[in-house]
């Protein structure tokens, strides 16, 4: 069976002086219509033989300094294709401008100064690419004519920006592959179309793109790359969009920061305090001795202060990575003062460190393309850090009032009374929800 592309047309457009191909609907499409049908025989997948060869080479399956074995096998399948292969001919010749793994240290420092989480992610990926390439070279597993590191990195850039991981609705059939034509689709949330595996003619498995809603004639065909924030889309795909909200109002943006020797993920505000509580708690634990002796959370646990004390989750020991360049009222009368004082101190330190991190961001660089994407990402990150800085300050205010003898429930009820009376709340609703959650779990 050949490709069914009767419902679409491919246009070439120019964005920021770069030519790009996009897919449009050739006619009006009803919800449920199959927009594209690609036989699995037309996809590019890794071979069983390659996987067996990798396993025989004692490929490190659990070492984070190497790529996952399935990713490595798919990259090898791609770079093994001749330059005359139709799929190779439509791919970009390089990703030097688009994907940060190809940027120099100087460029990264210039464009992403202060974005410590994304710089850590890029460094980790660079390390994995170098270690994996060295292993393949040592065991003579690189295709003839494609032995150099640059070609291997190019193949991995194609994988992160274009590969599909597919599962059939019936279950049991999964496929990791490159899908010609379908990989020209851009991302959109909420999803316009969804893809999957369905049985085609003669029992062959097809990759199908199906409309989830009506699609107008001439409208661009899109699907969702996933619930991803800007850091992930920049590293994998080379773009950043303004924050996208999920149907429940939650935000997919996550800023990774190092605090007190621990990496903490801070999710953007939206959807209520349940989404942001973990980030604030993680920072207070990091600076307040959550894993050691004498910190606020140890005191809370000893004195019966609620869920905030916890059992003390074990943290996985992370391997050191090199920096690679590719090119209420507290119920115990004996411990209350110490707990509250510890909270005030830890929350103050969190606020101070977050302010330092905000000030550490660079000015960015004028221009479009990657310069614009990096400025957008850093603006998002700084606004998230500012939210948590202010939230830490608000919780600290409550802790100080508790220290002076006020009852936590009366403090929070006072907020509600002012709101019911038409007065302004202490803080905006998102922050208020986080502050209340934090205070009720750890102080009430």
Automatic annotation (TrEMBL):
Residues in SET domain copies: 6-226
Pfam families tied to this protein: SET (PF00856)
Transmembrane segment boundaries: none
Region (Disordered): 301-322
GO molecular function, a single term: protein-lysine N-methyltransferase activity
SUPFAM superfamilies attached to this UniProt entry: SET domain
Superkingdom in the source lineage: Eukaryota
Record protein name field: SET domain-containing protein
